[in-house]
Specification:
It is elongated, with a radius of gyration of 25 Å. Residues about 1-45, about 50-55, about 85-115 and about 335-350 have low confidence and may be disordered. The strands form 5 sheets. Strands 10, 11, 13, 14, 15 and 16 form a 6-stranded mixed beta sheet that branches. The chain has a 5-stranded parallel beta sheet with strand order 7-6-5-8-9, sandwiched between helices. The chain has about 500 residues and is an alpha/beta fold. The two termini are about 20 Å apart. Helix content is about 30%, strand content about 25%. It has helices spanning about 25-40, 50-60, 60-65, 70-80, 130-135, 155-160, 205-220, 250-255, 270-280, 310-315, 330-335, 450-465, 470-475, and strands at about 90, 100, 105, 115, 120-125, 145-150, 170-175, 190, 235, 240-245, 300-305, 315-325, 345, 355-370, 385, 400-410, 415-425, 435-445, 480-485. It has 2 domains: about 50-235, 3-Layer(aba) Sandwich (Rossmann fold); about 240-485, Hnrnp arginine n-methyltransferase1.
């Protein structure tokens, strides 16, 4: 279903005047949204559906951007081509894992072999038909069914015919949930480019889940074999969301601290407004440099899914907590001898003891594709990976930047770790949209996570009683917390 991808319509950027984003972000906007729903009655589908499909059906610039994304398009092409080779094992999980579909629970076995060659493939959200054609040409599929809800399908059908694949590829215009499956036709592969901003925005994954469950049920009725043999191959086969703390000092200087001195004038009031408005929502327009990543811990996987197992419920609420090592353990002894040397730095490296500046977090996703290799039949080949990480070649998804209202200074002589909590919750009124929440606090050297939380509570409570503002206490006590709408 084209339109359920990572691009964000411009009218979603209706910034609010509420700068306190930890107070459920914009109560005025929330009230307006609920009032609209009450006036118009119950909304069966996301009210942005029509706009999505129109946007993807008529705006070819979007499709140009996706097709010109070499990392995206060539990864799909390679993954599809690899499945035209010798059969590979479709069981990437252990034999105790359970498949939970809407109406069927089947135990996985390890005897399933599958390939795309001479099989039936479904392309969910086929767009211009590029993946459908890859399946027919590189994957050597016998038949491809492309499903898309936008008006682009008329053009897609012409593209298919013009390139000589009209006898193998059929294009159907409808919502995936309205597609009429042939109860006598087995579908062996489902391919879809469903990923959006921070992986899940636009919730196109729900269309893939629906198609997967329907195909699994039909395949099971047509087969004498039970279990994983009836589960279609899914491209991609798994996906993960990652987060990492970042230093964005250059951006901060250009867009925030700039207002401190404008031709000798103090424009502080503008700075406050820019901070509350510009960073009220995630930034998805820039490529984040690898040098902006700070800390000595690897990037954290905050959520992952196997596409054969994931449910809509799994995508509705995500919660993850972890601890980031901000100081390299190997440098602690060296730094203990340098307590008198403290310099300000925008990076985490350097021989001198340095104060790190954390402006927030950057998020991205990786997807994995199964592969078959004709060269080595004895071993399972490694998966093909499409990564949108700052460490990987840039893609049209870029990264998702989550910036706090004020930077967090990390002095390694006081704090060596950061305790972080992450939530991503689907908007009940607008199910394509999410709320993203990040909270973090710096941990004193030798302090446990629980000790850190208890200390913050005690110090905050006592200082509030003495008349200090809680927001000032939080800033002083090295705590940050913020909620971003993605996008409603």
């Amino acid at each position: 279903m084209a339109g359920k991808r990572g691009r964000v319509p411009i009218n979603y950027f209706s910034f609010t005047s509420n700068s306190d984003l930890s107070d459920e972000i914009s109560e005025k906007q929330e009230g307006k949204d609920k009032e609209t729903i009450e006036q118009e009655g119950e909304v069966e589908d996301d009210p942005q559906d029509e706009e999505y499909f129109e946007n993807y059906g008529f705006n070819m610039q979007i499709h140009l951007e996706m097709l010109q994304d070499e990392s995206r398009t060539s990864t799909y092409q390679s993954a599809i081509a690899s499945l035209s080779h010798l059969p590979h094992s479709n069981n990437i999980l252990d034999d105790k894992t359970i498949i939970n579909t809407s109406e069927d629970v089947s135990e996985l076995s390890d005897n399933s072999l599958a390939t795309m060659k001479n099989k039936v493939v479904m392309d969910v959200g086929c767009g211009t038909g590029i993946l459908s054609i890859f399946c027919a040409r590189e994957g050597q599929a016998a038949k491809v069914i492309g499903v898309d809800a936008s008006e682009l399908t008329s053009i897609t059908s012409q593209i298919v015919e013009r390139n000589g694949f009209g006898d193998k590829i059929s294009i159907v215009q409808c919502d995936m949930e309205e597609f009429v499956f042939d109860p006598n036709e087995r579908i062996d592969v489902i391919v879809s480019e469903w990923m959006g901003t921070l992986l899940l925005f636009e919730s196109m994954i729900s269309a893939v889940i629906y198609a997967r469950d329907e195909v699994f049920k039909i395949n099971s009725t047509l087969s004498d074999v039970e279990g994983v043999d009836n589960m279609p191959i899914l491209l991609p086969s798994s996906a993960s969301i990652f987060l990492h703390p970042v230093n964005m000092q250059e951006r901060w200087d250009e867009r925030i601290d700039y207002w401190d001195d404008v031709y000798g004038l103090d424009m502080g009031p503008v700075k406050e407004r820019v901070t509350s408005h510009y960073y009220a929502r995630p930034n998805i327009t820039d490529i984040i440099k690898a040098s902006s990543l700070i800390g000595s811990s690897p990037s954290e996987c905050v959520w992952d899914c196997d596409m054969r197992l994931v449910s809509n419920q799994d995508t509705a609420f995500i919660h993850h907590e972890w601890i980031i090592q901000m100081v390299d353990d190997n440098k602690k002894d060296e730094e203990e001898e340098m307590k008198s040397v403290v310099t300000t730095s925008s990076s985490s490296g350097g021989g001198e003891r340095s104060i790190q500046i954390c402006h927030g977090f950057v998020g991205w996703f990786d997807t994995l594709f199964p592969s078959s290799s004709p060269q080595d039949q004895s071993n399972t080949p490694p998966p093909i990976i499409l990564s949108t990480s700052p460490l990987s070649p840039p893609t049209h998804w870029k990264q998702t930047l989550l910036l706090f209202d004020t930077p967090l200074e990390i002095n390694p002589s006081l704090h060596d770790r950061m305790s972080v909590g992450f939530k991503m919750v689907k908007n009940e009124d607008y199910p394509r949209h999410y709320r993203v929440e990040v909270g973090c606090c710096l941990m004193k050297i030798g302090e446990t996570k629980q000790q850190c939380e208890d200390r913050i509570k005690i110090e905050t409570s006592s200082n509030v009683e003495s008349g200090e503002k809680e927001e000032d206490i939080i800033r002083e006590k090295f705590v940050r917390h913020k909620i971003w709408p993605l996008w409603r």
